Amino acid sequence: MLVVCMGLLNKESKDKKTKYQKLEEKLALKKKSAWDQFTDRQKKDAFRLCDDYKSFLDNAKTEREAVKEIEAFAKKKGFSGIGEAKELTPGSRVYDTYRNKNAALVIAGKKPITEGARIIVSHIDSPRLDLKPHPLYEDSGLAMLKTHYYGGIKKYQWVNRPFALHGVVTKKDGKTIDIVIGESEKDPVFVISDLLIHLSKNSQDKRLASEAIKGEELNLIVANIPVDDDKVKHKVKLAVLEHLYDKYGIVEEDFVSAELEAVPAGISKDVGFDRSLIGAYGQDDKVCAFASLIASDSVKIPEHTTIVLFYDKEEIGSVGNTGARSNYIEYIVSRILELSGNAASDSIVREALMKSSALSADVSAAVNPTFKEAHDIFNSNFCGFGALLEKYNGYGGKYSASDASAEYTGRIRKILNDNKIPWQIGELGKVDEGGGSTIAIFFSNYSMDIIDLGVPVLGMHSPFEIVSKADMYSAYLAYVAFLES
């Protein structure tokens, strides 16, 4: 009996929390896996949503393909073209595309846009290899295509793997054709061949990792069979030109007016025994683009007009007429004002933008367990711990950063907590380790509130990036809650 009583007392003392345990529970911030916070239904919803996401990834490897997918989704969900709309009333849905590289989805709110909009902005371009204007040549019995890498990459990661060609060619007659080669099981693929280990000891092996493969060495092998004519100087090259002409009507000069991108061939895959992760090319930033796209349909009649934007050129500085530095957002706001029966003067457009609240829907680094030394582990994002907030980004001393105010960060934090959405906050690595910036800096130029809210990624800018399904689903929930706020 005494033994039993002692056992009960020991159990009671173990279960009883001390004063400071209670205080710690009340005051200290604890990171918790999103998987532990989800209900069983939410876990199933996350997996289901990510199945759709993988299909989107496979069909939208380029910015042009992403716009086609976004437009098809918009039409299916009852959005009409903004150019066809006569007026906007609360709940009206319109969309726009621009130059096949930008898109916008708008739902009119109960309040006029002059009181500000809820804006989510992501980018749909990804690091890749673009063909040069004069790419085709022959060397050592092989036909080759010269490339110029787009965005920041570790060049050594892009060799000895299958590539597909995606893009468009505008021919000499002015007709533009779409090309995708390398994605079907019956298609050939293309490859950049590295130097074999047996011969690299005294040359390549002594290079720095950043120079192990140089930009001018990123050349795709595309053919080997020559035409049967000894009077032709470049017989394998001519065989390629003959093939392209017979199949597509393309001549060599047409490469000048082409946008052909070499991207990793193949489909997205579940990663891990539990299938909790997704591995694929282009998840920076299509994971946030897709999550915001689906979120746009989850909003019915919002208080504030919602604008979900998709931009090109982020990976090279958001430049050009389809980058975030262009005036595309000003055009969209002007059209909303006009369709709502308001004047669209420059001052009214500027005021509407100043009163708007925005999320820069972009990715950041997840902690890689093998390379933890690159991170400040107390201020880092982890796979599976929910959507990430980045109050600021940039380089070193916050150079080229957008730095959200305490008030706006608190407002977004409250939205996430009130809706019980898993989230975490961190930075992109140690202070002097590297860094990066997002579209946020360009939207902050309109004096609107903006903060980065996205998904942590492993292997960012590599041909096979990895994200957690829990983080993607958390971002989707966060975007819905923000648009409805």
According to CATH, the homologous superfamily of the largest domain is Zn peptidases
- Radius of gyration (Å): 26 Å
H/I helix tally: 12
**Count of strand segments:** 22
What is the CATH-assigned architecture of the largest domain?
A: 3-Layer(aba) Sandwich
Write down the overall geometry. globular
Average pLDDT rating:
94
* Biggest β-sheet strands, sense, barrel: 9 strands, mixed
Spatial order of the strands forming the largest sheet: 1-2-3-13-4-14-20-16-18
Total tally of structural domains: 2
In CATH, the topology of the largest domain is named: Aminopeptidase
Report on this structure.
The protein has 485 residues and is an alpha/beta fold. The chain folds into two domains: 34-126 and 281-483, 3-Layer(aba) Sandwich (Aminopeptidase); 128-264, Aminopeptidase i, Domain 2, CATH 2.30.250. 30% of the residues lie in helices and 22% in strands. The protein has helices spanning 2-15, 19-27, 34-37, 40-59, 63-76, 235-248, 283-298, 328-339, 346-354, 406-418, 440-443, 469-483, and strands at 80-81, 93-98, 102-107, 118-123, 128-139, 142-150, 163-170, 176-181, 219-223, 258-264, 269-271, 277-280, 306-311, 357-360, 364-365, 387-390, 394-395, 423-425, 435-436, 449-454, 456-457, 465-468. The chain has a nine-stranded mixed sheet with strand order 1-2-3-13-4-14-20-16-18, with helices on both faces. Strands 8-7-10-5-6-9 form a six-stranded antiparallel sheet, covered by helices on one side. A three-stranded antiparallel sheet has the order 11-12-22. A hairpin with a 3-residue loop joins strand 2 and strand 3. Helix 4 crosses helix 12, helix 7 crosses helix 12 (469-483) and helix 8 packs across helix 9. The protein starts with a helix and ends with a helix. The model has no long low-confidence stretch (mean pLDDT 94).
